[in-house]
Structures are given as C-alpha cells and as structure tokens.
Amino acid sequence: MKKINLEKIGDNMKIYIAIFNKKSNIDKEGYYCLQVGAKQNPKITELCDDSGDNISYKNINYSEVTGLYWIWKNSSEDIVGLTHYRRFFYNNSIVFEKRNVLSKSNIEKILKNYDAILPEKGYLKKTVGESYKDSHVSSDLDACEKVIGKLYPDYSSAFTKVMNKKNYHAFNMIITKKEVFDNYCNWLFPILFELEKELDTSDREMYNGRVYGFLSERLLNVWFEKNSDLKIIEKPVYNIEQNMNIQIGRSLVKKIYRRIK
C-alpha cells in the first residue's frame, strides 16, 4: 500500500463511541455516540447503526463491528475512529482523568506524523492463535485462515505471523484517516461475510456467538502486519468501569516489557 500523506488533515473529524444500552459519560469535542445493534433494541441516541447502509441486524454475532461497518459506509469525515462506551484512548498512561482522553487537537497532531492510532498491545502467556482457541471455538480460527487463503493469499503469511505472536492490539478500536479506514474495511468485511457461509452459530451461547467481533480483533493486526508501510502509534486504553490503579499498573508493565524485549 502506498504511504498515506497526512500533511494536511483538515478539521473534519468524528470519533464514534459504540454504545449498547446506555450512553457514555465522556463528552468531548469530536466524539459522537453511535448505538450498535439498534435494529433489535430501543433507540437511546440520535446516531444508530440501523440507518443508511448497515448490518445492524448482525450485531448479535458482530458486536461493535456493526458500528465499524456503519462508519465505513456512512461517514465521510477526514478522520474517523471507533471507541467503546467504556473504553477510550488516553494521552497519558498514568493519569486517569476524563480530560486525558485523546482530544480532537491531540488526534490531529498525532495523525500528522502517524497513519493510525491503535491500542497498546496486550501481552499473552500463549500465542495469539493458542489463546484464541483456548477461549473460543477453535475451528472458527481454522476457517478464518482458510478464507484468507482463498480471498487474500498474499495475507496468509501475515496471518501466520500474527497468530504466532504473544501480543496484539485488542478491542476493535482505531482512529485513522478515512482512506486508511476504508482500505481496512474493504479487506475485512469480505472475509467476515465469506466466513458466515462456513460457520453455524445458531446453537451457540451468546459469548461465542460474537465470533466475528472476536475474529476482527485479530484480523486488525493481520492487516497492519501486512501493510507495515503504515506508521502506527500505540496509546493506552482504559476501561472507565474497572479499577483504574490496576489498569495503570498493567499499562506500565507493558511499557517495561517492550523496553526489555
């Protein structure tokens, strides 16, 4: 992929906060609540993923990825991104205050020098592939590998490399220029739609029914592994519903781990 020129970004930005059954309590310029799974639930905000070109009806299996699809098809801003109602990118890994959530000016400044903002990598005891198979339906990952080999054989080696790592960017969270976002989605969704033909999720419990959301978390890493000419920066992600001291400690451990590797 050709290097994206981000010298002139412009002011047109929307960072979408995927919400489900309640609104986020983060209120910052450039951030907008987007209700995902809105087709099956009462509306709680103006922007919903069942408008325009959408796959809201697939939310039970796709989770926040129906929001990713909606942004791809319906948002035309220069800069777009997806965060969660409880998870946000922070500008500093040791100060937890709402004002420390990445601001519009932070994002514009960062994307003049980088192509995408991704979550700090999470580190695992086992490989990405092994960990997935331990926690989810192992055959889903095998099917995903086959579909990639069928649709995008030039990505097969990147898939293998990511699956053999012990770290990855989680949460399906990203902030980037719309062109980069579109290129990623143009690659991702054909894989997921093809997988739907292969996988039977009708009898699954709710957790592993969200298979396409879980696979997308790993596939984001595959895409950036292959498109390594794009320059990414990692930012800490904190969950505002969990103990912040524990999360801050984990973030510091990640930084120390990266330095000694």
Overview of the molecule:
The chain has 261 residues and is of the alpha/beta class. The chain has one domain (13-260): Spore Coat Polysaccharide Biosynthesis Protein SpsA, Chain A (Alpha-Beta Complex). The protein has helices spanning 59-62, 65-74, 104-110, 128-135, 138-151, 156-163, 178-198, 206-209, 211-226, 244-260, and strands spanning 13-19, 31-35, 79-84, 87-89, 116-119, 122-123, 167-168, 174-177, 232-235, 237-239. It starts with 12 loop residues before the first strand and ends with a helix. The model is unreliable at 1-10 (pLDDT under 50).
Question: Which key terms come to mind for this protein?
Answer:
six-stranded mixed β-sheet, 10 helices, Spore Coat Polysaccharide Biosynthesis Protein SpsA, Chain A, alpha/beta, disordered N terminus, two-stranded antiparallel sheet
SSE layout and pairing:
Layout: E1 13-19, E2 31-35, H1 59-62, H2 65-74, E3 79-84, E4 87-89, H3 104-110, E5 116-119, E6 122-123, H4 128-135, H5 138-151, H6 156-163, E7 167-168, E8 174-177, H7 178-198, H8 206-209, H9 211-226, E9 232-235, E10 237-239, H10 244-260
Parallel strand pairs: 1-2, 1-3, 5-9
Antiparallel strand pairs: 3-8, 4-10, 5-8, 6-7
Helix pairs in contact: 4-5, 5-7, 6-9, 7-9
Question: What is the compact description of this entry?
Answer:
With 261 residues, the chain is of the alpha/beta class.
- Tally of individual helices: 10
Strand arrangement within the widest β-sheet reads 2-1-3-8-5-9
Q: How would you spell out the order of helices and strands?
A: EEHHEEHEEHHHEEHHHEEH
Q: What level of helicity do the residues show?
A: 40-55%
Average pLDDT value?
Answer: 91
Structure summary, number of beta strands: 10
Domain tally: 1
CATH class: Alpha Beta
Q: What name does CATH use for the topology?
A: Spore Coat Polysaccharide Biosynthesis Protein SpsA, Chain A
- First-residue to last-residue Cα separation: 28 Å
CATH architecture: Alpha-Beta Complex
Radius of gyration: 18 Å
